[in-house]
Structure formats: C-alpha cells, structure tokens
Amino acid sequence: MATVEIVSFGYLHGQAPEADVTLDLRRAFRDPHVDPRMRELTGYDRLVRRKVLNTAGVRQLLKATTRQVQAYAAGPNVEHIVIGSGCAGGRHRSVVVAEKLARRLRRRGHTVTVTHRDIRRAVVQR
Fold first, then answer.
1. For residue 36, which phi and psi values (nearest 5 degrees)?
2. Closest-CA residue to 93 (of 17, 11, 36)
3. Which of 54, 75, 78, 106 lies 20 to 30 A from 3 at CA?
C-alpha cells in the first residue's frame, strides 16, 4: 500500500508544492474568507468545515480524488504519492479538503501524513 503525503497550501503565499496530484480549489468552490465570521478561522473550525463540505461538488471531488490515489497506488513502482490541496490563502478550503481526504484514504489502508503549509500565516487582505 502506498504512503500518501497531503500538503495544503495557499497560492497567495507561494508556488504550489511539487505533487503527483494538485487540487486547485480557488475558482470552483466559494471561499469562506468572504464571510467576515469565518475570515480569521481555519479549516479546523466546525463552521468552516461545514461550509466547505456542504459546497456543491466538494464531496464528489473527494470521491474522485480518492479513486485517483487508488489508481496511482495500483501502479507497479509507486510507494509514495503526494497530493497538493490549494486555495487562495491556505487556511480554509485547502485544509478541510486535505483533512477529509486523509480520513478517506486512511480508511482504505493508506498511511497518510498531512501538512498545512500556510495555515498559520496572516489572513490575506483582498
């Protein structure tokens, strides 16, 4: 079984990490940042998690990405798979998707590590 490394990040804080699969969540899924109540929160907060996971298409993306990782893992030379989960600031959507994806992959037997590269950075003012 392949090990999986998931890195959440914010495009506004630098380049995407090198990855086998990169999920760019910026345009397809509304940013919780636009709601002042959620701006200073992170993907660890219940309000943000609910908002992101209840966004149309997110659960389908998680399911499809899980299948994609399973396909990579079935390859003859794959021992380590890197997934990048990116949004604008790296605090909301990318964190929720990374954590939920990790949970799904662990249930399927993968060893998964998760790093939130930009979660502690200052909120981007835009």
1. -55, -30
2. 11
3. 54
User: In the prediction, which pLDDT does 1 show?
Assistant: 80
CA distance 106 to 100: 10
Backbone phi, psi, residue 84, to 5° = -105, 135
Cβ–Cβ < 8 Å for 38, 47: yes
Q: Where are the beta strands (DSSP E) in the chain?
A: 3-10, 21-24, 80-87, 111-116
Residue 126: pLDDT above 80?
A: no
What's the pLDDT score for residue 124?
A: 82
Collapse the DSSP code of 59 into the 3-class scheme (helix H, G, I; strand E, B; otherwise coil) and give the result.
helix
CB atoms within 10 A of CB 65: 20
